[in-house]
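Backbone-to-sequence.
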């Protein structure tokens, strides 16, 4: 996200600089074209000199105008597109939490070659960030909690009425449908897709299959938000989205009362995260109990 922020700033600066140059050149072309070389009429005795100087000045003016117009043509052939206005997401991501106690309980879970987790308890309303390098088991853990990945050993209990999951790779079975159609079919929500602020209006009528990866992830987020789940499982939620939307998403998580488990290796998100974290390294970590249940350490840490 830091790279995205820097790229956005460079894009905005390049657009502003180019527009300033174009406006200056266009104004210069108008001013130069209106220039008058002499402010007095010629006397009878110097008409030939006057005509000669006037012709020379006119030629100079035409040359300057032509040079400016050529420069304008060069710039207009390679215009920097105007950065789109960021979309705005101002909602919570979960429904209201109506129960207390544990929502997630994991004991001695093993997924061969992918995940070894001795213990994990996530309390109702808790927001947990799972961190670790690629291959450390973050996505596998979310898949286990969602019931999408079968374990080889151990016990998993998830006591949520409604689970919402955002996988890393979002795929829609009907790429010919529009976001409106996919959203309505998946949610039946009375809240229109356009009101959520996750997709630009120009994207709502296009087939899902032609949308970018980021646009498809935003559509998946919209479906999750409309579902009002009481347990959200988000796998790399800041991937392929703008910094503005990522910030609003993080703020939306902070406002959400439901239980949330986020898997991410995004340094920007890790720095801003205020809740408990579960760092996975070599997929072998054990929980240390505390009053707020907010600390985990590896088995070899005393």
């Amino acid at each position: 996200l830091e790279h995205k922020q820097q790229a956005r700033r460079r894009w905005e600066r390049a657009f502003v600089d180019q527009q300033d140059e174009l406006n200056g050149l266009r104004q210069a072309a108008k001013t130069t074209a209106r220039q008058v070389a002499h402010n007095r009429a010629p006397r009878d005795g110097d008409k030939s000199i006057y005509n000669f100087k006037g012709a020379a000045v006119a030629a100079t003016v035409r040359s300057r105008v032509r040079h400016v117009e050529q420069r304008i043509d060069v710039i207009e052939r390679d215009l920097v597109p105007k950065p789109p206005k960021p979309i705005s997401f101002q909602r919570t991501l979960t429904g209201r939490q109506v129960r207390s106690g544990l929502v997630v309980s994991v004991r001695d879970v093993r997924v061969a070659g992918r995940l070894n987790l001795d213990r994990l308890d996530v309390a109702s309303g808790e927001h947990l960030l799972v961190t670790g390098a690629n291959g450390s088991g973050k996505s596998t853990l979310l898949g286990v909690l969602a019931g999408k990945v079968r374990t080889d050993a151990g016990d998993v209990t998830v006591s949520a009425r409604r689970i919402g999951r955002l996988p890393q790779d979002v795929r829609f079975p009907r790429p010919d449908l529009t976001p409106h159609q996919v959203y309505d079919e998946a949610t039946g929500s009375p809240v229109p897709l356009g009101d959520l602020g996750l997709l630009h209006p120009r994207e709502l009528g296009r087939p899902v299959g032609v949308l970018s990866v980021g646009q498809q992830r935003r559509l998946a987020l919209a479906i999750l938000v409309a579902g009002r789940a009481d347990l959200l499982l988000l796998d790399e939620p800041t991937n392929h989205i703008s910094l503005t939307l990522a910030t609003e998403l993080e703020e939306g998580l902070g406002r959400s009362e439901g239980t949330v488990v986020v898997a991410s290796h995004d340094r920007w998100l890790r720095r801003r995260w205020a809740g408990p974290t579960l760092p996975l390294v070599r997929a072998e970590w054990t929980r240390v109990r505390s009053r707020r249940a907010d600390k985990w350490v590896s088995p070899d840490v005393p």
